[in-house]
Amino acid sequence: MFEEPEWAEAAPVVAGLSPVTSRPRPAAAAQIKGSRRRQLLATLRVLEAASLSQQSTSLPSSDSEEEVERKKKHPKKSPFANTSAKVGEKRKKCQKLGPPQGDCEDHNVEKKKRCRQALLASDSAREEKRKRKCQKQALSNPAQHLDSVDQTGHKSWKSNTTDDSPKPSPGSCSSKPPNTLTRKQWRNRQKNKRRHKNKFRPLQAPDKISADASKASTEESEVPPTPKPDNHDARAEALRARMAQRLDGAQFRYLNEQLYSGPSSAAQHLFQEDPEAFLLYHRGFQSQVKKWPLQPVDRIARDLRQRPASLVVADFGCGDCRLASSIRNPVHCFDLASLDPRVTVCDMAQVPLEDESVDVAVFCLSLMGTNIRDFLEEANRVLKPGGLLKVAEVSSRFEDVRTFLGAVTKLGFKVISKDLTNSHFFLFDFEKTGPPRVGPKVQLAGLKLQPCLYKRR
């Protein structure tokens, strides 16, 4: 009979299975081929490998006594206790080594802040020193001080604006340029500040102003601040003076418009009814002419000084007789109202002079009204043959100088010279050639000059 090999009985034990009972093999089993045997061997090898892997991964079911005692002596600690212990150890190590990195960063930030504060303090101290130096220089040379203040102040303002301007972040795509002012805008702002500061200061007499200026130049200390008028009476007086000045300006503009928009007879009637109106008009006129670089009456007086002193002069619209006071010639002064005993009050279209009795006729800013032709015809009547006519008028009144000169030549004059170089007035010299060549009914368009009206400032 066929006997089973030893591996057939050991296989179930190795695999951890129950033992297999042996059964009688049939007789045909003896004739199993070698291929069947090889298959069985392969399956047994696979079973052995599986049983070995199960034994290595399986855990023991019960602990030994030694292991229990070891666990009692050294119990397991919770994870939180372990972490707290680790943190404590780390802190001790950090204390031994030095301050942590975060504290070091805070310490560095504080140091930087202190450095910045020190720099700002030093900059403010330098600025104060610079201001004191400028104030001391102002006492010695005020004009140079103003220029230096304009330059340095503008530079310091520019530096402050550039330093204080926020720096654009590197991540931002578009960055706006800093809002800076030009030199002209900055100076205008400074002027507005000074005007606002001096708005409620009381008016001072020119003698007091000159005395204060001399005192300020002699002092070497810092310029004291100007006292602000805290007194209610001083403020009221300053306001009253300012309102009176505005009222005078409004009245001057009204009178000036009346003189240019009507004939000379209406202007004479106006000043006869209100003599103070002429004084007010003359005061406003002088305040306007003072702003000019050269006054025309001074130019005419200079020209007449170069001629013989025996020439008789007729001044049409003399005002305060400034021309008569500037030359040695005998002068007949005519005007609508009198500001001087030498003035003859009359209408300039009808002066009380004989025919051909004057050598020089002068119209200095006096061709006012709508009857300019009457004035020039009256000058032609009183002038001697070959006499001189001098006319000075505001340049803005002439639309076309040629038409004006042509109209004057038709009234019996010839152009000798003209001066158009001045920015405020034109000066013309004419010579009498004879009586007017046109009749009184002929219209002369060139004699219609524009009115000289002043705007409200």
Description:
The protein has 457 residues and is α/β, with parallel strands linked by helices. It contains 15 helices and 7 strands. A 7-stranded mixed beta sheet has the order 3-2-1-4-5-7-6, sandwiched between helices. It is elongated and about 170 Å long. About 14% of the residues have low confidence.
Concise summary:
By secondary structure, this protein is an alpha/beta fold. The chain is built from 15 helices and seven strands. It is elongated and about 170 Å long.
Percent of residues in beta strands: 5-15%
Count of β-strands = 7
The pLDDT mean sits at 74
- The H-and-E topology, N to C, reads as HHHHHHHHHHHHEHEEEHEHEE
Secondary structure tally, helices? 15
Low-confidence stretches: 7-22, 26-30, 58-63, 77-81, 153-177, 219-224
